[in-house]
From TrEMBL:
Lineage: Bacteria, Pseudomonadati, Bacteroidota, Chitinophagia, Chitinophagales
Organism: Chitinophaga nivalis
Gene3D superfamilies named among the record's database cross-references: Cytochrome P450
Entry annotated with the keyword Iron: yes
InterPro entries, per the entry: Cyt_P450 (IPR001128), Cyt_P450_B (IPR002397), Cyt_P450_CS (IPR017972), Cyt_P450_sf (IPR036396)
Keywords annotated in UniProt: Heme, Iron, Metal-binding, Monooxygenase, Oxidoreductase
The protein's name: Cytochrome P450
Family classification: Belongs to the cytochrome P450 family.
SUPFAM superfamilies: Cytochrome P450
Length: 419
Protein backbone atom coordinates (compact mmCIF):
# COMPACT_ATOMS: atom_id res chain seq x y z
CA UNK A 1 0.00 0.00 0.00
CA UNK A 2 1.20 3.50 -0.78
CA UNK A 3 1.21 6.49 1.54
CA UNK A 4 -1.00 9.23 0.21
CA UNK A 5 0.84 12.55 0.28
CA UNK A 6 -2.18 14.15 -1.37
CA UNK A 7 -4.07 13.55 1.81
CA UNK A 8 -4.76 16.58 3.96
CA UNK A 9 -4.27 14.38 6.99
CA UNK A 10 -0.96 15.16 8.70
CA UNK A 11 -0.92 11.88 10.61
CA UNK A 12 -0.67 9.96 7.35
CA UNK A 13 1.49 12.52 5.52
CA UNK A 14 3.99 12.35 8.41
CA UNK A 15 4.31 8.57 8.31
CA UNK A 16 7.88 7.47 7.87
CA UNK A 17 8.77 4.92 5.17
CA UNK A 18 9.38 2.27 7.86
CA UNK A 19 5.76 2.65 8.98
CA UNK A 20 4.52 1.22 5.69
CA UNK A 21 2.36 -0.68 5.09
CA UNK A 22 -0.45 0.99 6.99
CA UNK A 23 -1.42 -2.34 8.40
CA UNK A 24 1.74 -2.28 10.52
CA UNK A 25 0.74 1.03 12.12
CA UNK A 26 -2.78 -0.26 12.49
CA UNK A 27 -1.78 -3.38 14.35
CA UNK A 28 1.31 -2.68 16.43
CA UNK A 29 -0.01 0.28 18.39
CA UNK A 30 -3.48 1.00 17.06
CA UNK A 31 -4.80 2.93 20.06
CA UNK A 32 -2.26 5.75 19.75
CA UNK A 33 -2.46 5.91 15.96
CA UNK A 34 -6.26 6.08 16.01
CA UNK A 35 -6.20 8.70 18.75
CA UNK A 36 -4.10 10.93 16.50
CA UNK A 37 -6.54 10.38 13.64
CA UNK A 38 -9.54 11.23 15.82
CA UNK A 39 -7.89 14.50 16.81
CA UNK A 40 -7.82 15.69 13.19
CA UNK A 41 -10.50 18.18 12.29
CA UNK A 42 -11.12 16.74 8.83
CA UNK A 43 -11.58 13.16 7.76
CA UNK A 44 -8.42 11.37 6.77
CA UNK A 45 -7.84 9.69 3.43
CA UNK A 46 -5.43 6.89 2.61
CA UNK A 47 -4.59 5.38 -0.76
CA UNK A 48 -4.85 1.63 -1.08
CA UNK A 49 -3.37 -0.65 -3.73
CA UNK A 50 -4.53 0.26 -7.25
CA UNK A 51 -4.53 3.98 -6.35
CA UNK A 52 -7.84 3.53 -4.56
CA UNK A 53 -8.73 6.47 -2.27
CA UNK A 54 -10.23 5.37 1.03
CA UNK A 55 -11.64 7.60 3.78
CA UNK A 56 -11.11 6.52 7.37
CA UNK A 57 -14.01 7.09 9.76
CA UNK A 58 -12.53 7.07 13.24
CA UNK A 59 -14.96 8.91 15.56
CA UNK A 60 -17.82 7.04 17.23
CA UNK A 61 -20.70 9.26 16.12
CA UNK A 62 -19.44 9.39 12.51
CA UNK A 63 -19.04 5.61 12.55
CA UNK A 64 -22.64 4.99 13.52
CA UNK A 65 -23.88 7.58 11.01
CA UNK A 66 -21.91 6.05 8.13
CA UNK A 67 -22.93 2.50 8.98
CA UNK A 68 -26.61 3.38 8.75
CA UNK A 69 -26.39 5.75 5.77
CA UNK A 70 -27.66 4.05 2.57
CA UNK A 71 -25.53 6.39 0.41
CA UNK A 72 -22.60 4.14 1.31
CA UNK A 73 -22.93 1.00 -0.77
CA UNK A 74 -21.53 -2.45 -0.02
CA UNK A 75 -21.58 -3.62 -3.65
CA UNK A 76 -17.93 -3.96 -4.79
CA UNK A 77 -16.84 -1.52 -7.52
CA UNK A 78 -15.62 -4.27 -9.81
CA UNK A 79 -18.65 -6.58 -9.38
CA UNK A 80 -19.08 -8.51 -12.64
CA UNK A 81 -22.02 -8.17 -14.96
CA UNK A 82 -23.15 -11.79 -15.29
CA UNK A 83 -25.95 -10.91 -17.68
CA UNK A 84 -23.48 -9.69 -20.29
CA UNK A 85 -23.25 -11.93 -23.42
CA UNK A 86 -19.44 -11.99 -23.07
CA UNK A 87 -19.58 -13.36 -19.52
CA UNK A 88 -17.98 -16.82 -19.33
CA UNK A 89 -18.83 -18.66 -16.08
CA UNK A 90 -16.44 -21.52 -16.89
CA UNK A 91 -13.47 -19.19 -16.69
CA UNK A 92 -14.32 -17.52 -13.43
CA UNK A 93 -12.76 -18.66 -10.15
CA UNK A 94 -15.42 -19.12 -7.41
CA UNK A 95 -13.98 -16.33 -5.26
CA UNK A 96 -15.77 -13.66 -7.34
CA UNK A 97 -19.28 -15.03 -6.94
CA UNK A 98 -18.61 -16.00 -3.33
CA UNK A 99 -17.53 -12.47 -2.44
CA UNK A 100 -20.00 -10.60 -4.64
CA UNK A 101 -23.11 -12.67 -3.94
CA UNK A 102 -22.98 -12.96 -0.17
CA UNK A 103 -25.10 -10.71 2.01
CA UNK A 104 -22.16 -8.64 3.26
CA UNK A 105 -21.64 -7.45 -0.34
CA UNK A 106 -25.27 -6.53 -0.92
CA UNK A 107 -27.48 -3.55 -0.17
CA UNK A 108 -31.19 -3.61 0.60
CA UNK A 109 -33.42 -5.17 -0.60
CA UNK A 110 -31.19 -8.12 -1.70
CA UNK A 111 -29.31 -7.93 1.60
CA UNK A 112 -32.48 -8.18 3.69
CA UNK A 113 -33.71 -11.10 1.60
CA UNK A 114 -30.50 -13.12 2.07
CA UNK A 115 -30.22 -12.25 5.74
CA UNK A 116 -33.79 -13.27 6.50
CA UNK A 117 -33.15 -16.75 5.06
CA UNK A 118 -30.42 -17.45 7.62
CA UNK A 119 -31.42 -15.24 10.56
CA UNK A 120 -33.32 -17.83 12.60
CA UNK A 121 -30.28 -20.13 12.84
CA UNK A 122 -28.44 -17.39 14.74
CA UNK A 123 -31.23 -16.40 17.13
CA UNK A 124 -29.74 -16.07 20.63
CA UNK A 125 -32.11 -18.69 22.05
CA UNK A 126 -31.08 -21.25 19.45
CA UNK A 127 -27.39 -20.44 19.91
CA UNK A 128 -27.67 -21.05 23.69
CA UNK A 129 -28.40 -24.68 22.76
CA UNK A 130 -24.70 -24.97 21.82
CA UNK A 131 -23.50 -24.16 25.33
CA UNK A 132 -22.84 -27.74 26.46
CA UNK A 133 -21.11 -28.69 23.23
CA UNK A 134 -18.84 -25.61 23.25
CA UNK A 135 -17.91 -26.41 26.86
CA UNK A 136 -17.05 -29.96 25.79
CA UNK A 137 -14.88 -28.75 22.89
CA UNK A 138 -13.05 -26.36 25.24
CA UNK A 139 -12.53 -29.10 27.86
CA UNK A 140 -11.18 -31.54 25.27
CA UNK A 141 -8.67 -29.00 23.96
CA UNK A 142 -7.55 -28.20 27.51
CA UNK A 143 -7.18 -31.94 28.30
CA UNK A 144 -4.91 -32.24 25.28
CA UNK A 145 -2.80 -29.25 26.32
CA UNK A 146 -2.47 -30.58 29.88
CA UNK A 147 -1.67 -34.11 28.72
CA UNK A 148 1.49 -32.86 26.96
CA UNK A 149 2.95 -32.45 30.44
CA UNK A 150 5.22 -29.54 29.40
CA UNK A 151 3.47 -26.78 31.34
CA UNK A 152 3.61 -24.66 28.15
CA UNK A 153 1.26 -23.86 25.30
CA UNK A 154 0.77 -21.59 22.35
CA UNK A 155 -2.68 -20.29 23.24
CA UNK A 156 -3.40 -19.13 19.65
CA UNK A 157 -2.39 -22.36 17.92
CA UNK A 158 -3.63 -24.90 20.46
CA UNK A 159 -6.82 -23.27 21.73
CA UNK A 160 -7.99 -20.04 20.08
CA UNK A 161 -7.79 -21.35 16.50
CA UNK A 162 -9.19 -24.88 16.86
CA UNK A 163 -12.14 -24.03 19.14
CA UNK A 164 -14.17 -21.82 16.77
CA UNK A 165 -13.46 -23.97 13.71
CA UNK A 166 -14.80 -27.09 15.47
CA UNK A 167 -17.87 -25.16 16.66
CA UNK A 168 -18.47 -23.67 13.21
CA UNK A 169 -18.04 -27.03 11.48
CA UNK A 170 -20.57 -28.61 13.83
CA UNK A 171 -23.04 -25.74 13.50
CA UNK A 172 -22.86 -25.99 9.72
CA UNK A 173 -22.74 -29.80 9.71
CA UNK A 174 -19.41 -30.04 7.87
CA UNK A 175 -17.80 -33.48 8.04
CA UNK A 176 -14.66 -33.87 10.18
CA UNK A 177 -12.17 -34.40 7.37
CA UNK A 178 -10.75 -31.20 5.86
CA UNK A 179 -11.33 -29.08 8.97
CA UNK A 180 -7.65 -28.11 8.92
CA UNK A 181 -8.09 -27.00 5.30
CA UNK A 182 -11.09 -24.89 6.29
CA UNK A 183 -8.83 -22.95 8.57
CA UNK A 184 -6.28 -22.33 5.82
CA UNK A 185 -8.95 -21.33 3.30
CA UNK A 186 -10.58 -18.92 5.73
CA UNK A 187 -7.22 -17.40 6.66
CA UNK A 188 -6.41 -16.72 3.00
CA UNK A 189 -9.83 -15.37 2.19
CA UNK A 190 -9.96 -12.93 5.09
CA UNK A 191 -8.89 -10.04 2.88
CA UNK A 192 -10.45 -6.62 2.60
CA UNK A 193 -10.29 -6.45 -1.21
CA UNK A 194 -9.16 -8.57 -4.13
CA UNK A 195 -6.02 -6.94 -5.55
CA UNK A 196 -3.30 -7.98 -8.00
CA UNK A 197 -1.10 -9.15 -5.15
CA UNK A 198 -3.61 -11.46 -3.44
CA UNK A 199 -5.68 -12.53 -6.48
CA UNK A 200 -3.93 -15.84 -7.17
CA UNK A 201 -3.98 -17.06 -3.57
CA UNK A 202 -7.66 -16.15 -3.25
CA UNK A 203 -8.61 -17.83 -6.52
CA UNK A 204 -6.78 -21.04 -5.52
CA UNK A 205 -8.27 -21.14 -2.03
CA UNK A 206 -11.76 -20.55 -3.40
CA UNK A 207 -11.48 -23.51 -5.79
CA UNK A 208 -10.56 -25.78 -2.86
CA UNK A 209 -13.45 -24.50 -0.75
CA UNK A 210 -15.98 -24.77 -3.54
CA UNK A 211 -15.03 -28.39 -4.33
CA UNK A 212 -15.29 -29.24 -0.66
CA UNK A 213 -18.70 -27.56 -0.29
CA UNK A 214 -19.98 -29.27 -3.41
CA UNK A 215 -19.35 -32.64 -1.73
CA UNK A 216 -20.98 -31.40 1.48
CA UNK A 217 -24.12 -30.25 -0.36
CA UNK A 218 -24.43 -33.64 -2.13
CA UNK A 219 -24.03 -35.41 1.22
CA UNK A 220 -26.55 -33.22 3.05
CA UNK A 221 -29.11 -33.57 0.26
CA UNK A 222 -28.81 -37.36 0.55
CA UNK A 223 -28.56 -37.41 4.35
CA UNK A 224 -30.16 -34.30 5.84
CA UNK A 225 -28.90 -33.49 9.33
CA UNK A 226 -29.81 -31.22 12.22
CA UNK A 227 -27.41 -28.54 10.98
CA UNK A 228 -27.23 -25.20 9.23
CA UNK A 229 -26.22 -26.46 5.78
CA UNK A 230 -29.28 -28.74 5.73
CA UNK A 231 -31.41 -25.82 6.96
CA UNK A 232 -30.00 -23.56 4.21
CA UNK A 233 -30.61 -26.20 1.53
CA UNK A 234 -34.23 -26.32 2.70
CA UNK A 235 -34.64 -22.65 3.72
CA UNK A 236 -37.60 -20.93 2.19
CA UNK A 237 -39.49 -17.68 2.62
CA UNK A 238 -42.75 -18.52 0.89
CA UNK A 239 -41.66 -19.51 -2.60
CA UNK A 240 -38.26 -17.82 -2.29
CA UNK A 241 -35.14 -19.87 -1.62
CA UNK A 242 -31.37 -19.57 -2.01
CA UNK A 243 -30.00 -20.31 -5.48
CA UNK A 244 -27.07 -22.73 -5.75
CA UNK A 245 -24.57 -19.85 -6.09
CA UNK A 246 -26.11 -18.02 -3.14
CA UNK A 247 -25.69 -21.18 -1.06
CA UNK A 248 -21.97 -21.29 -1.79
CA UNK A 249 -21.65 -17.58 -1.09
CA UNK A 250 -23.57 -17.89 2.20
CA UNK A 251 -21.53 -20.80 3.58
CA UNK A 252 -18.32 -19.12 2.38
CA UNK A 253 -19.26 -15.95 4.27
CA UNK A 254 -20.14 -17.81 7.46
CA UNK A 255 -16.83 -19.69 7.46
CA UNK A 256 -14.73 -16.62 6.68
CA UNK A 257 -16.61 -14.28 9.03
CA UNK A 258 -16.94 -16.74 11.89
CA UNK A 259 -13.53 -18.26 12.30
CA UNK A 260 -10.62 -15.81 12.40
CA UNK A 261 -12.72 -13.20 14.16
CA UNK A 262 -13.61 -15.48 17.06
CA UNK A 263 -10.13 -17.02 17.20
CA UNK A 264 -8.55 -13.58 17.62
CA UNK A 265 -11.16 -12.45 20.12
CA UNK A 266 -9.98 -15.36 22.28
CA UNK A 267 -6.29 -14.57 21.68
CA UNK A 268 -6.62 -10.82 22.27
CA UNK A 269 -8.77 -11.41 25.36
CA UNK A 270 -6.27 -13.74 26.97
CA UNK A 271 -3.47 -11.33 26.16
CA UNK A 272 -5.33 -8.36 27.61
CA UNK A 273 -6.29 -10.20 30.80
CA UNK A 274 -2.68 -11.25 31.43
CA UNK A 275 -1.49 -7.72 30.70
CA UNK A 276 -3.96 -6.40 33.31
CA UNK A 277 -3.41 -8.63 36.37
CA UNK A 278 -5.81 -6.63 38.59
CA UNK A 279 -8.67 -7.28 36.15
CA UNK A 280 -7.67 -10.93 35.80
CA UNK A 281 -7.72 -11.33 39.59
CA UNK A 282 -11.14 -9.67 39.78
CA UNK A 283 -12.50 -12.09 37.18
CA UNK A 284 -10.97 -15.09 38.93
CA UNK A 285 -12.62 -13.99 42.21
CA UNK A 286 -16.01 -13.48 40.60
CA UNK A 287 -16.47 -15.73 37.52
CA UNK A 288 -19.93 -14.21 36.89
CA UNK A 289 -18.06 -11.14 35.62
CA UNK A 290 -17.19 -13.08 32.45
CA UNK A 291 -20.23 -11.63 30.65
CA UNK A 292 -19.30 -7.92 31.04
CA UNK A 293 -15.61 -8.89 30.74
CA UNK A 294 -16.17 -10.28 27.22
CA UNK A 295 -17.90 -7.05 26.24
CA UNK A 296 -14.96 -5.06 27.52
CA UNK A 297 -12.57 -7.36 25.63
CA UNK A 298 -14.58 -6.69 22.46
CA UNK A 299 -14.45 -2.93 23.00
CA UNK A 300 -10.87 -2.64 24.20
CA UNK A 301 -9.14 -5.41 22.23
CA UNK A 302 -11.67 -6.39 19.56
CA UNK A 303 -10.31 -8.53 16.72
CA UNK A 304 -12.00 -6.57 13.91
CA UNK A 305 -10.17 -3.27 13.42
CA UNK A 306 -12.26 -1.89 10.57
CA UNK A 307 -15.56 -2.57 8.92
CA UNK A 308 -15.48 -4.15 5.48
CA UNK A 309 -15.24 -1.73 2.56
CA UNK A 310 -18.08 0.62 1.63
CA UNK A 311 -18.15 3.05 -1.30
CA UNK A 312 -19.74 6.45 -1.71
CA UNK A 313 -22.57 5.97 -4.22
CA UNK A 314 -22.63 9.71 -4.93
CA UNK A 315 -20.51 12.75 -3.93
CA UNK A 316 -20.92 13.15 -0.16
CA UNK A 317 -19.83 16.13 1.95
CA UNK A 318 -18.71 14.88 5.34
CA UNK A 319 -16.47 16.19 8.13
CA UNK A 320 -15.00 19.08 6.12
CA UNK A 321 -14.27 17.05 2.97
CA UNK A 322 -16.08 15.86 -0.14
CA UNK A 323 -15.97 12.14 -0.71
CA UNK A 324 -16.18 11.55 -4.45
CA UNK A 325 -18.58 9.03 -5.91
CA UNK A 326 -16.76 5.66 -5.90
CA UNK A 327 -14.32 6.55 -3.09
CA UNK A 328 -13.83 3.82 -0.51
CA UNK A 329 -14.90 4.26 3.11
CA UNK A 330 -13.63 2.21 6.04
CA UNK A 331 -15.17 2.59 9.47
CA UNK A 332 -12.41 2.03 12.00
CA UNK A 333 -14.47 0.22 14.62
CA UNK A 334 -11.58 -0.14 17.07
CA UNK A 335 -10.99 3.59 16.95
CA UNK A 336 -14.68 4.41 17.49
CA UNK A 337 -14.62 2.09 20.51
CA UNK A 338 -11.79 4.15 22.01
CA UNK A 339 -13.51 7.50 21.49
CA UNK A 340 -13.30 9.49 24.73
CA UNK A 341 -16.49 11.40 23.87
CA UNK A 342 -18.32 8.09 24.35
CA UNK A 343 -16.26 6.00 26.78
CA UNK A 344 -14.67 7.19 30.02
CA UNK A 345 -10.89 6.56 30.08
CA UNK A 346 -11.21 4.51 26.91
CA UNK A 347 -7.69 3.09 26.95
CA UNK A 348 -8.28 1.58 30.40
CA UNK A 349 -9.37 -2.08 30.38
CA UNK A 350 -12.17 -2.18 32.94
CA UNK A 351 -14.32 -5.31 33.11
CA UNK A 352 -16.81 -3.49 35.35
CA UNK A 353 -17.22 -0.56 32.94
CA UNK A 354 -20.70 0.90 33.38
CA UNK A 355 -21.41 2.29 29.91
CA UNK A 356 -20.16 -0.06 27.21
CA UNK A 357 -22.29 0.23 24.08
CA UNK A 358 -19.43 -0.49 21.68
CA UNK A 359 -19.64 -1.28 17.95
CA UNK A 360 -17.18 -4.18 17.80
CA UNK A 361 -19.86 -6.18 15.96
CA UNK A 362 -20.68 -3.30 13.61
CA UNK A 363 -23.92 -1.33 13.51
CA UNK A 364 -26.99 -1.05 11.30
CA UNK A 365 -28.17 -3.48 8.62
CA UNK A 366 -24.94 -5.51 8.52
CA UNK A 367 -24.63 -5.89 12.31
CA UNK A 368 -22.83 -9.19 12.92
CA UNK A 369 -25.26 -12.07 12.66
CA UNK A 370 -22.89 -14.30 14.67
CA UNK A 371 -22.56 -11.95 17.66
CA UNK A 372 -24.40 -14.24 20.12
CA UNK A 373 -22.35 -17.23 19.05
CA UNK A 374 -19.06 -15.35 19.31
CA UNK A 375 -19.92 -14.01 22.78
CA UNK A 376 -20.94 -17.46 24.00
CA UNK A 377 -17.75 -19.05 22.68
CA UNK A 378 -15.60 -16.39 24.31
CA UNK A 379 -17.41 -16.60 27.66
CA UNK A 380 -17.07 -20.39 27.81
CA UNK A 381 -13.54 -20.59 26.40
CA UNK A 382 -11.99 -17.94 28.64
CA UNK A 383 -13.81 -19.15 31.78
CA UNK A 384 -12.73 -22.76 31.12
CA UNK A 385 -9.13 -21.67 30.63
CA UNK A 386 -8.99 -19.69 33.87
CA UNK A 387 -10.63 -22.46 35.82
CA UNK A 388 -8.24 -25.10 34.49
CA UNK A 389 -5.03 -23.12 34.98
CA UNK A 390 -4.96 -21.09 38.22
CA UNK A 391 -1.39 -19.92 37.62
CA UNK A 392 -1.41 -18.86 34.00
CA UNK A 393 1.33 -16.46 32.82
CA UNK A 394 3.06 -15.11 29.73
CA UNK A 395 5.99 -17.36 28.78
CA UNK A 396 8.99 -15.48 30.28
CA UNK A 397 11.26 -16.91 27.54
CA UNK A 398 9.42 -14.88 24.87
CA UNK A 399 10.18 -11.13 24.83
CA UNK A 400 8.21 -9.85 21.87
CA UNK A 401 4.78 -10.89 20.67
CA UNK A 402 4.11 -10.48 16.97
CA UNK A 403 0.84 -9.05 15.67
CA UNK A 404 -0.58 -10.08 12.31
CA UNK A 405 -0.04 -7.58 9.54
CA UNK A 406 -3.63 -7.02 8.46
CA UNK A 407 -5.84 -3.93 8.37
CA UNK A 408 -9.05 -5.83 9.00
CA UNK A 409 -8.09 -8.25 11.76
CA UNK A 410 -5.96 -7.56 14.82
CA UNK A 411 -4.56 -10.72 16.32
CA UNK A 412 -1.39 -12.32 17.63
CA UNK A 413 0.50 -14.82 15.52
CA UNK A 414 1.44 -16.72 18.68
CA UNK A 415 0.68 -16.33 22.38
CA UNK A 416 3.09 -18.56 24.31
CA UNK A 417 1.94 -19.15 27.91
CA UNK A 418 3.15 -21.18 30.90
CA UNK A 419 0.92 -22.72 33.55
C1 LIG B 1 -15.58 -11.96 17.83
C2 LIG B 1 -16.13 -12.41 16.78
C3 LIG B 1 -16.76 -11.56 15.71
C4 LIG B 1 -16.64 -10.22 15.45
C5 LIG B 1 -15.83 -9.19 16.23
C6 LIG B 1 -17.45 -9.94 14.29
C7 LIG B 1 -17.60 -8.69 13.72
C8 LIG B 1 -18.41 -8.41 12.65
C9 LIG B 1 -18.61 -7.09 12.10
C10 LIG B 1 -17.90 -5.83 12.57
C11 LIG B 1 -19.49 -7.19 11.08
C12 LIG B 1 -20.01 -6.05 10.20
C13 LIG B 1 -19.05 -5.74 9.08
C14 LIG B 1 -19.45 -4.52 8.27
O1 LIG B 1 -20.50 -3.91 8.51
O2 LIG B 1 -18.67 -4.17 7.36
C15 LIG B 1 -19.86 -8.59 10.98
C16 LIG B 1 -20.75 -9.08 10.05
C17 LIG B 1 -21.03 -10.42 9.93
N1 LIG B 1 -20.60 -11.45 10.76
FE1 LIG B 1 -19.41 -11.27 12.37
N2 LIG B 1 -18.03 -11.10 13.86
C18 LIG B 1 -17.65 -12.11 14.72
C19 LIG B 1 -18.04 -13.43 14.67
C20 LIG B 1 -18.92 -13.96 13.76
C21 LIG B 1 -19.40 -15.33 13.73
C22 LIG B 1 -19.05 -16.39 14.78
C23 LIG B 1 -20.19 -15.46 12.63
C24 LIG B 1 -20.93 -16.64 12.10
C25 LIG B 1 -20.70 -17.88 12.33
C26 LIG B 1 -20.23 -14.16 11.97
C27 LIG B 1 -20.93 -13.88 10.82
C28 LIG B 1 -21.10 -12.62 10.29
C29 LIG B 1 -21.90 -12.37 9.09
C30 LIG B 1 -22.64 -13.40 8.25
C31 LIG B 1 -21.85 -10.99 8.87
C32 LIG B 1 -22.54 -10.21 7.75
C33 LIG B 1 -23.91 -9.75 8.21
C34 LIG B 1 -24.65 -8.93 7.16
O3 LIG B 1 -24.09 -8.60 6.12
O4 LIG B 1 -25.83 -8.66 7.40
N3 LIG B 1 -19.46 -13.28 12.69
N4 LIG B 1 -19.20 -9.31 11.96
Amino acid sequence: MTVSKISKCPVIADLRPEDEPYSKVFTTNPANFFEQLRQQENLCQITMEGNFPVWLITKFDDAQQVLKDPRFTKVPADARDRTSPTYDPENEAPIYRMTEENMLSRDAPEHSRLRSLVQSAFAPRYIQGFRARIQQVADELLDKIQAKGTGQMDFVEEYAYPLPIVVLAELLGLPHHDREKLRIWSEVMMELRITDSNRQALEDASIGLRNYLKEVFVLRREQPGDDLVTALLEARNGTDKLSEEELYAMVFLLIVAGHETTAHLLGNSMYTLLANPDQLAMLRNDPALIVPAVDEMLRHSGPVLTSTMRRASTDIVWGGVTMKEGDGVLVVLSSANMDATKFTDPQVFDIKREYNKHIAFGFGAHFCIGASLARLEAEIAIAAMLQRFPDLQFDPAVDVLEWRNNMLIRGLRKLPLVF
